[in-house]
Amino acid sequence: MKRLDRVVERIATVVLLVSGVGMLLVMFMGAGDVIGTHFFGWPLPGAKESSESTMVLIVFGSLAYAQIHRHHIRVELYYTRQSPRVKAALDTVTSLLALVFFAIVLWETFGEAVDSWSVWEADVGLIRFPIYPAKSFVVIGTAVMVVQLVLDLLHSVQRLRGKEAFEAPEEVPPEAQVKTM
To answer: What is the spatial distance between Cα 122 and Cα 7, in angstroms, rounded to a whole number?
Structure first.
């Protein structure tokens, strides 16, 4: 299972990098639009449409990576005071509920993406900006999240049954990630 964990983490990292590139593009397009509008009286064509679609990249591209590294919101004040078995039970319930939610999101967005590709859906503004790639990225990001949630659920159930160490996966503190010379 550790091998599958590493594969999913690599995929999540690639998806996160794509969303990071999207964030950089939105930042530069937004800056170009502001500069063009205020200094030259000419807005950057397609800046609004591209930033709307790229927000999808940013949000859905980071979901699985945040899940892997336990960066989603949880009530630490309560969670950290619980026994390892209660933590495993809480993780199991949380993973199961999140899995149901994201499986529904995946199901619905897959149909939307297929429909969008079939008509080459586009947002009409100053330029015709395609929407179907963004809808596809929602499916990709959600699919990686669903796979990660399945893995988390399996790990939590194993911990709950006592088949693994009871400690929840530790998140690596930022200072431990930096290599010193």
So the answer is: 34
